[in-house]
Design the sequence.
């Protein structure tokens, strides 16, 4: 997966998953614009890349606004002459239950994740179409956006919206040979440290201990580095035919998420559906096919 000559912007790449993405892209030859809201963190990320022989610069800006998005694209072009890859990774959490969530908590998460993905992708798409040589846009989803999670109204809404935008952008940018995909990662980061059932696995990774197969396979849980290979693949020429997909990865698990599809269909006989008719048909036709919410795991043996 040779990326020499490619230029990538990775938002939220000062630490965690974003840092792993930036380091992997640089390791394979891409020049990288690292982004974080903390200048010291961003510079430390750049230093880790250049110390390993890679090429990177920092752009310190909070993702969300159109101005921030344009600054990231402009930095790539000014420093490295072009743009080839955008990884929309920047994100924050403001977790609480629906009845306790404030407007500010909802807006902060949606602004960073959903609006930030939109504004950065729009700015990148304009530049990529102008260059006329195709490109790669990789957006970061979450299992929460696919199936929901308790206490994450704002995050679930943003991540579900990102996948919806990916499907739309894949159609709109196909003629320009720009692929758009969503990655649905699971890894030990600051965002997963607060999940109680993952705590022992996070601790194990911090201590340098190997994770059991249950964690790496059934839970699909591992390190940030376990996810980075998919980013490099989707950024490469090998992935030119892949677009509009939501691809899960974590630990030893790689999975393709389906698009929402109708699982059961019944038809009325020319009269439409009354409440009573729906009640009559629901049990025999639909009850057994009701969908679950939240992630479902086989118990550890």
Sequence:
């Amino acid at each position: 997966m040779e990326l020499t000559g490619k230029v990538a912007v990775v938002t939220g790449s000062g630490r965690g998953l974003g840092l792993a993405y930036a380091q992997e892209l640089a390791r394979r030859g891409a020049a990288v614009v690292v982004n974080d809201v903390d200048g010291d963190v961003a510079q430390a990320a750049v230093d880790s890349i250049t110390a390993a022989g890679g090429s990177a610069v920092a752009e310190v800006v909070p993702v969300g606004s159109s101005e921030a998005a344009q600054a990231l694209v402009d930095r790539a072009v000014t420093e490295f002459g072009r743009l080839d890859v955008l990884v929309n990774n920047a994100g924050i959490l403001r977790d609480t239950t629906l009845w306790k969530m404030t407007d500010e908590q909802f807006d902060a998460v949606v602004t960073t994740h959903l609006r930030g993905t939109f504004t950065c992708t729009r700015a990148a798409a304009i530049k990529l179409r102008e260059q006329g040589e195709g490109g790669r846009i990789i957006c970061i989803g979450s299992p929460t956006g696919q199936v929901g999670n308790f206490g994450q109204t704002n995050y679930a809404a943003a991540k579900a919206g990102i996948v919806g935008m990916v499907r739309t952008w894949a159609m709109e940018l196909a003629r320009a040979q720009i692929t758009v995909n969503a990655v649905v990662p699971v890894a030990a980061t600051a965002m997963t440290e607060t999940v109680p059932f993952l705590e022992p696995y996070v601790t194990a990774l911090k201590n340098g201990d190997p994770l059991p197969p249950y964690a790496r396979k059934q839970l699909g849980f591992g390190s940030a580095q376990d996810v980075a290979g998919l980013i490099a693949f989707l950024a490469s020429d090998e992935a030119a035919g892949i677009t509009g997909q939501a691809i899960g990865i974590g630990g030893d698990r790689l999975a393709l998420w389906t698009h929402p599809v109708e699982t059961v269909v019944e038809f009325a006989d020319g009269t439409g559906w009354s409440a009573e008719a729906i009640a009559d048909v629901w049990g025999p036709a639909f009850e057994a096919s009701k969908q679950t919410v939240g992630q479902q795991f086989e118990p550890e043996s």
